[in-house]
Design brief:
Layout (H helix, E strand, L loop, with lengths): L2 E10 L2 E10 L10 E7 L6 E4 L1 H9 L3 E2 L1 H9 L2 H13 L4 H120 L1
Parallel strand pairs: 1-5
Antiparallel strand pairs: 1-2, 2-3, 3-4
Helix pairs in contact: 1-3, 3-4
Length: 216
């Protein structure tokens, strides 16, 4: 029975999650499988790959053929390297202890690379968050400055309007006060012209009354 190591799709729509399984090559992709070897989650950054290396090597040594994607995942977690080292042990190229030491050294180096990638992504995300916060802060400061400028402009316009109003009111009051001052002399002159005429009439008649008895 030909066996393939392949991915079986699970998860939700738009968020796939895969199982790495050993299955009959004639079975449907998401149908029955012989054994589950690991999982693959592409929704994380970096992608999360979990592989049971011993189980994967067992199937590889039994002739199972991985698909291209499954081969990439097995290589990512060292299953193909372990399979290769085990072949060297069977041929006598090196001992099992040497093979295990090489695999452990490779695995440690691989974990360091993955951790460095995670740290780099964390720094990038932190820098992106800081940049976004700085941009948001700049926008907020500009809004505050614009609002203050509008308030200052409105206050200046109100002050200018108040000053113009104060200048117009005294001018109007001066015009009102000058009008009675022009009429005042005309009212006082009329009695002054009539006063001598009233006093002169009796002065002219007085001598005529005194001369009449003198003639008798």
């Amino acid at each position: 029975m030909p066996v393939k190591i392949r991915l079986q799709r699970h998860g939700k729509k738009g968020k796939p999650f895969y199982w790495v399984v050993a299955a009959d090559a004639r079975a449907k992709r998401d149908g029955r499988y012989l054994e589950k070897i690991g999982t693959y989650n592409p929704n994380t950054n970096p992608a999360t790959v979990e592989i049971n290396v011993d189980t994967a090597v067992k199937w590889l040594e039994n002739g199972a053929q991985p698909t291209d994607t499954a081969r990439t995942l097995l290589s990512y977690r060292g299953a193909l390297l372990m399979h290769h080292l085990n072949g060297g042990v069977r041929k006598g190229a090196h001992t099992q202890e040497e093979a295990d030491a090489k695999f452990e050294a490779w695995l440690e180096n691989k974990e360091g690379e993955i951790q460095a990638k995670v740290d780099g992504l964390s720094k990038s995300e932190a820098a992106a968050r800081k940049s976004a916060l700085d941009a948001e802060k700049a926008v907020n400061e500009k809004r505050v400055a614009d609002a203050k400028a509008l308030v200052d402009e409105a206050a200046a316009e109100e002050a200018a309007a108040a000053a113009a109003t104060e200048e117009e009111v005294p001018a109007a009051e001066v015009a009102v006060e000058e009008a009675p001052a022009a009429e005042a002399p005309a009212v006082e002159e009329a009695p002054a012209a009539e006063a001598p005429a009233v006093e002169e009439a009796p002065a002219a008649e007085a001598p005529a009354e005194e001369d009449k008895p003198a003639a008798e």
